[in-house]
User: Which sequence fits this backbone?
């Protein structure tokens, strides 16, 4: 980014005017006033704009105070953003005035030149007037940033190296041109459309940063073994900075080599090409361009690369046959982690430099690099896990870029299933229990994993949920349910007309489980029957035949057969159901009752 001090004398500076347009100013570079360069407005106000039409007498001239008001108003009307970058207007001064007569001009040499004013009515002998950084001359008119002091007769000595060079008597009219001072370190930006340097009024231009990531054909990866001259789309994340004008793309034959400029781009993508020759790398990096070269970023640390395939005459072939422990077959039932020898036949091709070995385990999508060797064998290991397959393949390497072969066919090692102590769970009348044995794992006693064979592989048997239930009497109910010798809970109102037994079954489910209620219902048809509620709902505290919240009713059934009510899957946590046996006012057999038991699967 350039500053005022970097520009040449006479450079055009563009200042925004009150109407939004840009006024042109000429930089007076050869002298500075208190750290400020002077700018002359390129259009003179003109004598007709500051004096009367008649010049017969001094009194008819535009007087200094009016001229000062005119120019000061012009300055005050500048936009505040422009004015904030300028020094205060130095001239004109309130005593400005004018006179008439012939023109004069000054030649400036490599010397100190000053103007010496004499014979002025406001000076007894003469004094130094304005320095030449307030003076400008053109072919037709001489301009000052202020008019000479009031009075009709003036004489100026022009001194060179403190010697009188020329004396001139002012007998002409002098125009006034608006002049402002501007700090030498204010930044400017070239505007080719307007043909001048714009002020960077905010002075917030920041160094650009390079794109963080680059992509080839939209992906953050590189391409290899492409055809010479193939085209790709190189794109990148936008850089940062306050004055970005575009991006520059560079290329190199190696990642850390010398990068050469390739093209400038205004957007964030462009077309690039692979090298025109076989077995050649091309790396790409991008830098962010600023409005000035000093604001350009460094090259991106990220890169994308292409490399071309080898000449077909140099391409290698992979080994034709692989062996495990000298047998050209796969290994099964291997011990996890056991070591084996992988061997292969030699590949063919130009400049073979060795072989690369790859592997993938059960569940892997791609092969993983294992290592490389110059021999025709390598020690490999079986997977560390039971019932797992590890496949191996080999690629022939060449010292010629792109000449390496594809993968060979695979050879695999499969580990045996885990050996466990199998047993059978049993039901103790309340819950399912696991058998021994246990084993000590160095920290505590644990049960072994239980497995089953599904016809093709061994799978772990999932543990049964640890579920339980209790039967609770319901407050206010005359009769309830009691556990009998068959392991069923049975109603206690058998043979009592107009009665009912009611209980609440509290359920604890540790894990997702199916719940079933096995029921034995003895009842008189259409009169006595058992009722089961939905999960987490209640039944009426009466002999009523419930019509809501009912999961199952045994109305009209008189049978000693076990009938199962399937409650489906219960989620982990605490639940409950209500169970009722309703006895109507009718003949009884003293054997009418409801028996139930809860089980989980």
Assistant:
């Amino acid at each position: 980014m350039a500053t005022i001090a970097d520009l040449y004398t006479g450079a055009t500076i563009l200042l925004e005017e009150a109407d939004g347009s840009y006024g042109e100013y000429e930089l007076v570079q050869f002298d500075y006033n208190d750290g400020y360069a002077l700018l002359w407005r390129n259009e003179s106000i003109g004598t007709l704009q500051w004096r009367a039409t008649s010049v017969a007498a001094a009194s008819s001239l535009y007087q200094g105070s009016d001229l000062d008001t005119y120019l000061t108003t012009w300055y005050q009307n500048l936009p505040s953003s422009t004015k904030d970058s300028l020094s205060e207007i130095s001239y004109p001064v309130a005593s400005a005035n004018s006179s008439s007569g012939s023109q004069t001009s000054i030649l400036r040499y490599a010397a100190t030149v000053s103007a010496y004013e004499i014979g002025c009515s406001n000076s007894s002998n003469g004094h130094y007037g304005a320095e030449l950084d307030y003076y400008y001359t053109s072919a037709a008119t001489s301009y000052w940033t202020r008019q000479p002091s009031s009075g009709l007769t003036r004489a100026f000595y022009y001194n060179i190296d403190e010697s009188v060079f020329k004396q001139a008597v002012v007998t002409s009219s002098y125009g006034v041109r608006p002049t402002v001072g501007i700090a030498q370190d204010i930044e400017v930006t070239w505007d080719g459309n307007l043909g001048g340097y714009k002020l960077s009024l905010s002075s917030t231009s920041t160094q650009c940063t390079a794109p963080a990531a680059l992509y080839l054909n939209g992906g953050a990866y590189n391409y290899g073994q492409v055809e010479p001259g193939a085209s790709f789309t190189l794109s990148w994340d936008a850089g940062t900075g306050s004055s970005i004008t575009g991006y520059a793309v560079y290329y190199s034959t190696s990642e850390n080599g010398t990068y050469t400029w390739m093209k400038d781009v205004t957007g964030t993508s462009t077309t690039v090409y692979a090298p025109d020759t076989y077995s050649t790398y091309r790396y790409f990096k991008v830098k962010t361009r600023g409005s000035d070269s000093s604001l350009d970023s460094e090259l991106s640390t990220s890169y994308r690369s292409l490399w071309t395939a080898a000449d077909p005459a140099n391409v290698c072939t992979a080994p034709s046959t692989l062996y495990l422990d000298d047998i050209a077959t796969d290994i099964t039932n291997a011990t996890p982690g056991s070591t084996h020898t992988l061997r292969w036949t030699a590949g063919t091709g130009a400049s073979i430099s060795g072989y690369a070995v790859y592997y993938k385990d059960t569940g892997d999508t791609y092969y993983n690099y294992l290592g490389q060797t110059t021999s025709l064998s390598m020690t490999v290991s079986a997977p560390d896990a039971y019932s797992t397959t590890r496949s191996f393949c080999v690629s022939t390497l060449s010292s010629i870029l792109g000449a390496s072969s594809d993968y060979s066919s695979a050879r695999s090692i499969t580990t045996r299933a885990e050996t466990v102590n199998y047993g059978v769970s049993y039901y103790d009348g309340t819950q399912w229990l696991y058998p021994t044995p246990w084993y000590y794992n160095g920290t505590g006693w644990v049960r072994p994993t239980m497995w089953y064979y599904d016809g093709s592989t061994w799978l772990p048997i999932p543990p049964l949920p640890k579920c339980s239930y209790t039967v609770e009497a319901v407050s206010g109910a005359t009769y309830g349910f009691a556990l009998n010798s068959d392991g069923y809970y049975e109603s206690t109102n058998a043979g009592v007309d107009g009665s009912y037994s009611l209980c609440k079954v509290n359920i604890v489910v540790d894990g997702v489980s199916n719940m079933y209620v096995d029921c034995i219902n003895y009842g008189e048809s259409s009169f006595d029957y058992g009722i089961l509620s939905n999960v987490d709902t209640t039944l009426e505290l009466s002999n009523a035949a419930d019509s809501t919240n009912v999961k199952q009713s045994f109305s009209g059934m008189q049978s000693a057969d076990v009938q199962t009510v399937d409650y489906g899957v219960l989620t982990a946590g605490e639940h409950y159901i209500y169970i009722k046996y309703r006895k109507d006012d009718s003949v009884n057999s003293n054997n009418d009752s409801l028996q139930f038991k809860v089980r989980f699967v």
Q: What stands out?
A: Confidence is low (pLDDT under 50) at residues 45-68, 88-175.
